[in-house]
Write a structure and sequence with these properties.
globular, about 475 residues, mainly alpha, Serine Threonine Protein Phosphatase 5, Tetratricopeptide repeat, 19 helices, two-stranded antiparallel ribbon, about 45% helix, disordered N terminus
């Protein structure tokens, strides 16, 4: 049950984290305690059961058969949408539990922020932490909805679907209707937007400057508290705008999605340069495979090199034993697409077999300092904002954005279909190319309720089911 689980998970977290091995009263008696608690949330987010693997590289990608699988394994059953299999059920239950565990810890911080507001000597820090917490709560709840919630197309049901949990309690959480859940989600985002717009230094400094804070005046960014640095590794103001765009597109609020997406696309540094830019062939050539300049929000994972070596470079996660499948079926054999040409590698394993692997997380073993450090799992990227804006903009501007996006990817500029449904399918193809190993393609298919014929690599025996069942331990929602 969500209510009991959240309280226990928070207690467990406080007991095992070295920096917070203390009672909550002691932890939240200082600004540094709140910083440590929020850092603990980010550490949870990058755990393998959520965004460290399951909701980026593995389980969510297996739902759309992005990787080769062996018959009758957990991975093959996920690709067949066999949600009743015990191993599949356990896998998704673990993700569900961990997401609400993260939410519980966020709610613990938010409750103490109000109770202990007076410990903050710096009101900007208070607003920064509160804004991040509200944004993270929305981010996690939205992905719960995107997995366990209904397909959003024409959804006017008044049934209770999922709990939007805003308090830490021993009582079972109250389930919300689709519309109630939406209202709670938008309310969190609106408040986070207002708080972070007032204090987030990402609006005033470049990503490069944020990655090299200096207390001795050697750079333009000299914060009194380095907690305000490295904002691209936290749910910053522009990440809130990006999440607003993602959420509003899901709910069909196209004007709001377009406005938020354009805010990010048009964001500028003080010198007039673009704050976030689309990656190019030059970035890929420099082995920046995740295109860091596109990252609006990413999770720092110092184990990323090991994950790549243990999961991809050793041939566990792969697609095909030659280049043909990916190059022809995913990219269309353009010969120029920077993703097609650079992102994948045919490797030979010790047993002489060959596998075709994605290099997105092939980062240096020894990380450079500052913004150049590639140990990041992208959570929100500029390319997604372009795809959202293209879908929601007036037709002439949509075509201009489409041309900009395709030019950056070094592929021929085409004319977008005039039929909105056909245009959606064209854009979903780009989600599939763009977000390999990032977990966004399944959601793109679900949002438009894509037919099996339009979902690349779906097994013949699969019956697509975009709605993951709630864990059996959850109470049946009362409608």
């Amino acid at each position: 049950m969500v209510g009991l689980m959240t309280l226990n998970s928070c207690d467990d977290f406080l007991s095992v984290n070295p920096k917070t091995q203390m009672t909550q009263d002691v932890l939240y008696s200082s600004e540094s305690g709140f910083k440590d608690a929020l850092t603990g949330v980010y550490i949870q987010l990058k755990s393998n059961s959520v965004y460290g693997q399951s909701l980026s590289m593995t389980t969510i990608e297996q739902l759309i058969s992005n990787w080769n699988v062996t018959t009758n394994t957990l991975e093959s059953k996920i690709g067949l949408y066999n949600y009743t299999d015990a191993s599949v059920e356990a896998k998704f239950n673990s993700i569900f539990s961990q997401q609400y565990s993260v939410i519980a810890n966020i709610n613990a911080i938010l409750a103490k922020l109000e109770e202990k507001h007076d410990v903050f000597k710096n009101e900007q820090l208070y607003k920064l932490i509160k804004g991040e917490c509200l944004g993270l709560r929305a981010y996690c709840h939205f992905d719960v909805l995107r997995l366990w919630g209904p397909v959003p197309v024409n959804n006017n049901s008044t049934n209770k679907i999922l709990p939007y949990v805003k308090v830490l309690s021993k009582e079972s959480a109250t389930y919300n209707t689709y519309q109630e859940y939406q209202a709670n989600l938008i309310a969190d985002l609106n408040q986070a937007d207002s708080l972070l717009k007032a204090v987030d230094p990402i609006q005033s400094y470049s990503l490069l400057d944020l990655g090299r804070p200096s207390a001795n005046g050697t750079t333009s960014f000299n914060p009194n508290d380095t907690y305000f640095a490295y904002r691209y590794l936290r749910l910053n103001y522009y990440a809130i705008k990006a999440l607003e765009a993602r959420v509003n597109l899901w709910y069909g609020n196209k004007d709001a999605a377009y406005a938020s997406a354009k805010t990010v696309i048009q964001a500028l540094n003080p010198d007039g340069s673009t704050k976030f830019r689309l990656g190019t062939a030059a970035d890929m050539t420099a082995k920046d495979f995740s295109l860091m300049n596109e990252h609006i929000f990413s999770l720092y994972d110092f184990e990323l090199n090991s994950k790549y070596n243990n999961q991809f470079a050793n041939g566990i996660i792969y697609k095909g034993t030659t280049e043909t499948t990916v190059k022809s079926q995913l990219y269309g054999n353009t010969g120029t697409d920077i993703r097609e040409v650079n992102l994948w590698q045919l490797i030979t394993l010790p047993n002489a077999s060959k596998t075709y692997v994605c290099q997105k997380y092939n980062v240096p073993a020894i990380a450079p300092s500052g913004f150049a450090d590639q140990n990041r799992i992208p959570m929100l990227r500029l390319s997604e904002l372009y795809l959202i804006a293209i879908e929601t903009a007036p037709s002439a501007e949509a075509q201009t954005l489409w041309a900009t996006f395709r030019t950056a990817r070094n592929i021929t500029v085409t004319t977008l279909p005039a039929d909105p449904l056909m245009a959606q399918l064209e854009l979903v193809k780009e989600y599939r190319k763009e977000f390999v190993a990032e977990g966004q393609s399944f959601y793109a298919y679900k949002r438009i309720n894509a037919a099996k014929a339009n979902v690349l690599w779906t097994p013949t025996a699969a019956v697509i089911n975009y709605v993951v069942p709630l864990p059996r331990t959850e109470p049946v929602p009362t409608n």
